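About this split. The held-out portion is used to measure sequence recovery: a designer receives only the structure tokens and must propose an amino acid at every position. Recovery is the fraction of positions where the proposal matches the reference. Here is one held-out target exactly as it appears in the evaluation file.
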């Protein structure tokens, strides 16, 4: 088994008749950035709270390095909740040092770590301010500092980029890459799918409490529906009507974007386009993560999980 593997294995959770999670299963490997995406209410936050022990699962197990997670293990986790989890009237520096000491740091080490992370995240000048007096973006930076201040071995972050300006997003992204480079497994949820696509080694898409797709962004994109871009200046509207299994997604001037059903013949599309005149472009276009997400959430998965997405 790989070192320092965080495993979420068959987690289920119900609230009466409501199924919040059903057999939620995935892992986050050492040094990996794992993007956890889904619509509001899909089960992302519930999963994270079970990992933290804030909620108890009805079934399933959370393991770290092959053993069930315990209170001692949870002291190793840096957690950033989506909602504010800070003391609003406590000063930033004092609060971060206090949280570090709760995780076992000495007073001196806690103070140094608080100074380090407020410098790193651009809020050193606000150490003596109460959290409630900060902007929402700066509160988010303090929230991340609170997750990092005790030098965690695992990071679990719920919407860490919410409310951040572009500069802060860049700083946050760099920090997460650095922690992954140190061998820390990082799992974070986000609705900013362009960031997830850019940052993450693997992605899991959640729908109605179940993991419906999982793998690297390239694996997920390759498993999506085939899309073609055809630039045929002489082609009239409806030129694909005689080709079975082909849908027009968009047309912009002479360029037509198509989606092909499984088994549809792309060479038949090319032949039909050439019959109308010259073809300046004929290329496959891989769907973005946003497009994959929309398809998976609204229609369910079209392809099995990639072989690269272990449990």
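Reference sequence for scoring:
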């Amino acid at each position: 088994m790989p070192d320092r593997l965080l495993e979420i294995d068959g987690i289920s959770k119900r609230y009466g008749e409501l199924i919040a999670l059903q057999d939620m299963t995935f892992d986050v490997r050492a040094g990996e950035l794992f993007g956890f995406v889904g619509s509001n209410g899909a089960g992302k936050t519930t999963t994270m709270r079970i990992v933290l022990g804030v909620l108890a699962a009805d079934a399933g197990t959370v393991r770290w390095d092959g053993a069930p997670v315990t209170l001692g293990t949870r002291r190793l986790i840096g957690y950033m909740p989506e909602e504010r989890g800070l003391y609003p009237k406590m000063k930033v520096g004092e609060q971060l040092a206090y949280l570090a000491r709760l995780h076992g740091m000495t007073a001196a080490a806690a103070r140094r770590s608080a100074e380090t992370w407020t410098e790193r995240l651009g809020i050193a000048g606000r150490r003596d301010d109460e959290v409630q007096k900060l902007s929402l973006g700066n509160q988010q930076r303090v929230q991340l500092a609170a997750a990092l201040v005790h030098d965690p071995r695992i990071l679990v972050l719920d919407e860490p980029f919410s409310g951040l300006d572009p500069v802060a997003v860049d700083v946050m992204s760099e920090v997460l890459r650095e922690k992954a480079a140190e061998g820390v497994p990082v799992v974070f949820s986000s609705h900013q799918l362009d960031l997830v696509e850019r940052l993450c080694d693997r992605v899991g898409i959640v729908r109605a409490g179940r993991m419906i797709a999982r793998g690297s962004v390239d694996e997920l994109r390759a498993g999506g529906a085939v899309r073609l871009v055809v630039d045929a200046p002489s082609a009239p509207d409806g030129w694909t009507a005689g080709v079975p299994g082909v849908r027009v997604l968009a047309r912009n001037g002479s360029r037509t974007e198509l989606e092909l059903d499984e088994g549809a013949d792309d060479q038949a599309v090319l032949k039909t386009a050439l019959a109308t005149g010259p073809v300046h472009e004929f290329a496959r276009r891989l769907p973005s993560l946003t497009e994959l997400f929309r398809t998976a959430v609204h229609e369910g998965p079209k392809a099995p999980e990639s072989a690269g997405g272990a449990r």
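Annotator remark: Residues 301-311 have pLDDT under 50 and may be disordered.
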